[in-house]
Amino acid sequence: MKRDILLIALLLAAPATLAGGEEDYQRLCAQCHGADGEPRMPGAANFNRQEGLRVSTLALQERIRRGNRGCPPFAGQLDDERILTLIQALRRMGR
């Protein structure tokens, strides 16, 4: 019974969590990577074509935490859960 309740709660929370990832993307990433994943800055990864996502989730987590090339670190602004929801939003962009 407890497991069923937990599963239902997680399923209901999933859309809100994904929306949070999209909001974080717009707030933190869209300035360089574009609102739709098409880069606005030279050298920024194109998430619309998935070229910036050809690495593992763990590698993306580290890049978001510590920064990468021209990207600033976001460890102080996003916890691990929010970083994962941001990665989910990124992976959905090019589909």
From TrEMBL:
Gene Ontology terms, MF aspect: electron transfer activity; heme binding; metal ion binding
UniProt keyword annotation of Heme present: yes
Protein name as annotated: Cytochrome c
Signal sequence bounds: 1-19
Protein species of origin: Ferrimonas sediminicola
Keyword Nucleotidyltransferase: no
PROSITE patterns assigned to the protein according to its UniProt record, in alphabetical order: CYTC (PS51007)
Pfam families: Cytochrome_CBB3
Key words of the record: Heme, Iron, Metal-binding, Signal
Domain Cytochrome c: 16-94
SUPFAM superfamilies: Cytochrome c (SSF46626)
Gene3D superfamilies assigned to the protein according to its UniProt record, in alphabetical order: Cytochrome c-like domain
